[in-house]
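Field reference: sequence -> structure
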Amino acid sequence: MQPLSASAHPGTARTVATNAPPASFGELHPLGGGDPIPLLKETLVIGRRESSDIVLRFPNVSGTHCELSLVAGDWIVKDLGSSNGTKVNGTRVSEARVDPGDRLSIGRHEYEVCYVPGTAGGGNGSAFGAPMRDIFSRSLLAAAGLENRRSPKPGRPRS
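Structure field:
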């Protein structure tokens, strides 16, 4: 997958015809103008390097500045040791949850985070992954491997 870029160069944009839009887990809307940046994967590295998932070509953005991860339907931002810091709503953070409508600052560039909590991951509205759904679909004794496979006959004590 090609990294997304926050700066477009004339003549390099191309349009691909498709019937369905790409799956998105939300968007970053640049404050002060610009095109929204779709969040296309559950873990995204943001930085100046071309190998980043979201490339921000600004001198005050570190090569690998921060990481966005979708955890239980919420986005978590983690600073990756950047020089100019990562902020949520004006407060510098090393790691924090980013709620819908929060301002995410990467270097000196601000973005509004837009997504629907709980439904951003997996698309089924569940905050639990497949392993958790499996556990909750059966008794706790069965999940722990402690359930007696043979039921005792009514009125007879277990031996």
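Note: The two ends are 61 Å apart (CA to CA).
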